[in-house]
Task: structure prediction
Amino acid sequence: MFERLQNSRKERKALADENEAKVKALEEEKEERSSQPRRGLTQKATPPPTPPSETKQQT
Result:
């Protein structure tokens, strides 16, 4: 019984280490993305021109 507990503990630790490595890699990737300048988002979008009102067209 003690051997099974020890084995289970080793397996859980291995899985935890694997998941920790994945999280670390994702955090590094996220950090790299945030440090890179964004392209195309520096200029403000201009709104489309407003169409003439319908009342002006009827007169």
About this structure: Helices lie at 2-35, 54-58.
